[in-house]
Design brief:
Blueprint (H helix, E strand, L loop, with lengths): L2 E2 L3 H6 L9 E5 L5 E5 L5 E9 L2 E9 L5 H16 L4 H23 L2 H14 L11 H10 L20 H4 L8 H14 L1 H19 L16 H4 L18 H9 L4 H13 L3 H5 L6 E2 L4 E4 L9 E4 L2 H15 L4 H9 L25 H11 L6 H11 L7 H8 L6 H6 L4 H19 L5 H5 L7
Parallel strand pairs: 1-2
Antiparallel strand pairs: 2-3, 3-4, 4-5, 6-7, 7-8
Helix pairs in contact: 7-8, 10-15, 10-19, 11-13, 11-16, 17-19
Length: about 475
Amino acid sequence: MAKINFTAARVAAHTCPKGQAQAFLWDGKTPGLGLRATPGGAKSYIFQAKLNGTTIRVTIGDTRSWTIDKAQGEAHRLQILVDDGQDPREVRAEQRAAHEARKVEARRHIATVGEAWADYLEYLRTAISPKTKKSRSPRYLADHAALATPGGEPTKRGGGKTVRGPLAPLMTLKLSSLTANTVAEWLEDEARERPTNAAHAYRLLKAFIRWSAGQDEYAGIILPDAYNSPKVTGVLPQSKSKEGDCLQREQLPAWFDAVRKIKNPVISAYLQGLLITGARREELAALKWIDLDLQWRSMHISDKVQTETGRIIPLTPFLHSLLLDLKRINDTPPNVRQLRRLKQRGEKWQPSPWVFASKTAAEGKIAEPRIAHANALEVAGLPHVTLHGLRRSFGTLSEWVECPVGVVAQIQGHAPSAIAEKHYRRRPLDLLRMWHVRIEAWMLDQAGIAFDPADAAKGLRAVK
């Protein structure tokens, strides 16, 4: 192995001959120091030596970054390690591991709750739930994200600003600052204004802290008593449903009368559908015509619990008649003048895929029915009832016909609350229909609505 003293000119002139994978030049001044050239023109200093009878080779660096003197000094250092019986490659790997460990430890001490929360959301999005053995629903993930949002963004409707989530004040804190005192003070502040939201946010925060304790990156930073200290549990508000957010039997005549007089037939049918089905507001709003079987009278609803399959519930006679009216409206093309305007804009008319369609909403389906409902309640002289209160009303009023609780839960899409319900009850649609029709008929009777189910079969509007 011929050796020459390295000079700048010799280093610059060294190339890899055609047909070879690499070519070496060895320094006559420094033992083990070599210059390697590749067919692509890359050149780098290397160190080569014998250790325990085996040849080892270590790359020092590119000739554009390392001078000859620096490369010779590094080769001397590596030779000293070899003479001491150490493998420079192992020493370098240990140094790299130690450096990474220091970086991780430094990040552990400066990591904020918001950074760890973002990692937690990614875990929820990608991992399977150990409880349901399924992926978590988009609504579940959106709920976690909303609770930590700082707010202040323009709302999609109304021109206002979004409200900050209850967990937002914690997001800027360091994880190490998430102590029992901090959580107790936060919870006490939030509970003054929004006790139910605060209790809900606390439960999610508790799950987050438990998850953090099991992650190598965050383990040991948050003290175990940060969520279960008596300081915290002592200020934890009880999560309660809104008092009185439910229609009573004697209020049904006024409610139906006011809602049926709403000029917008889509909103009117939608509100009546919420009460008659007990569905969640977004579930019903997302209903498409392909989800309905108008002939055999069933509805396929996207379900918060059964996220993959959804649930199928009966389409009761009165609601069926309301949806037939919407179907006729939806399938009726615009007049000649409107068609001409669409053509001028390069657009083509087609029926909406949404059952509760809206020409003004961005998604093309009903988006904000609360204003119309509030106005109807005011006209009827009734206390305020939320859209979720209509769902609550269905569950409450169904007791008047002595409907089995499990039937109501299955129609509404509640998770089974008992072992028998979960493992031994498989109610067919016909059984649900029998009770659901009774519930609807009882509501109409209490409201004083004379409805003949035969009219629904003919597609006629129900009359009072």
